[in-house]
Specification:
By secondary structure, this protein is of the alpha/beta class. The chain has helices at 11-22, 39-49, 65-75, 91-94, 96-117, 151-170, 192-202, 220-230, 266-277, 301-307, 315-336, and strands spanning 2-6, 26-31, 55-59, 79-82, 121-127, 174-179, 182-183, 206-209, 214-215, 218-219, 253-258, 264-265, 283-286.
């Protein structure tokens, strides 16, 4: 297929694009290469993709409708995986405008172009953060998700809702997937696995927010496998896979959790990093930050029903792979400097 991936220079987009190319698809990547974190990391990811004949790339911001339109016309996609967004819960407290521009305006632009291209399937990334203050565990797709705790979460829920409207009005087959704390090689420097590993390796204290924090960590290869399996499974109106299906009653649209369904304590993440690096962390304990939640927990039954697959990489194995990559990447970066 011809598949357009927005956010192709990002953590998840890079891994997905690389997998799709390996599977024989033509991939058109779009990314703004913003300075939210070090653009050198994004360029290093792109350097892994550019040599492939099956990959083309346009650097363009989601808010730039003219530039985005030109990129879409060159790609002529049959499917779109919309991963580009302004990410980060804490950063949304500092720079909320970035979330309006990328996640609201940008997603609207992608929806307009998906409609014009009449793609076979639009897939777009959402987040477990949409469950917000929900006290039900595990989080399941049919649960209400009406109490977001940050503008980031609200902007991602808005993207789901906008896509549902387009799906209904224009018969646009759409799957929104909610990610649960994705980690692994080529990850994001603003996320806890990178921040902790970098500090522990350097002998610096780590800042730990909250006393009893649990996260449903999802290894990147597992996430990509789930997305790849979902791409050919465009929703069909009136054809649910079971009572757990979030399929809309008025359009070819559904939302799917992608997570292991096995939350672990943040302490277990730190212990796994300590084991992988052979060093002990010095902790600086701080109160839980505004917008954070104490626990995320994916209900993964719908993903299993659709794909016969659920993420399964153990935390220790995934953390070891990430730490090995980080040491190599930072060593290579130091050598380049």
């Amino acid at each position: 297929m011809r598949i357009l991936v927005t956010g192709a220079a990002g953590f998840i987009g890079f891994h997905l694009a690389r997998r799709l190319i390996a599977d024989g698809h033509e991939v058109a990547g779009v990314d703004g290469v913003t300075r939210y974190y070090d653009p050198a990391l994004k360029e290093a990811r792109l350097a892994q993709l550019r040599p492939h004949n099956g990959f083309a790339f346009d650097q363009v911001m989601l808010e730039d409708m003219a530039g985005l339109t030109a990129a879409f016309e060159r790609a002529a996609p049959e499917a779109i995986v919309h991963l580009a967004a302004q990410a980060g819960v804490r950063y949304s407290l500092e720079n909320p405008r970035a979330y309006v521009d990328a996640n609201l305006v940008g997603t609207f632009n992608v929806l307009e172009l998906a409609k014009a291209a009449k793609v076979q399937h639009l897939l777009l990334a959402s987040t477990s953060s949409v469950y917000g203050a929900s006290e039900k565990r595990p989080f399941e797709e049919l649960d209400r998700a009406d109490y977001p705790l940050t503008l980031y979460a609200a902007s991602k829920k808005a993207g789901e809702l906008m896509s549902h409207g387009y799906s209904h009005l224009w018969n646009l087959p759409t799957t929104a997937f909610r990610f649960f704390t994705v980690y692994g090689p080529w990850g994001r420097p603003d996320m806890s696995p990178w921040r902790f590993a970098e500090a522990i390796a350097a002998g610096r204290p780590i800042e730990v927010y909250g006393d009893d924090i649990w996260r449903d960590f999802t290894y990147i290869d597992d996430l990509v496998e789930a997305i790849v399996r979902l791409i050919p499974l465009a929703p069909v109106k009136g054809a649910p896979v079971g009572p757990m299906d979030s399929l809309s009653p008025v359009g070819p649209w559904r939302v799917v959790n992608i997570g292991r369904g096995e939350p672990v304590r943040l302490d277990d993440l730190i212990a796994a990093i300590e084991t992988s690096l052979g060093k002990t962390a010095e902790r600086h304990q701080l109160p839980m930050q505004a917008g954070d939640v104490p626990l995320t927990f994916a209900g993964a039954e719908l993903l299993w029903a659709l794909t016969n697959y659920r993420p399964a990489t153990p935390l220790a194995k995934g953390v070891a792979a990430f730490c090995e990559w980080l040491v190599q990447y930072q060593g290579a970066a130091s050598h380049r400097q």
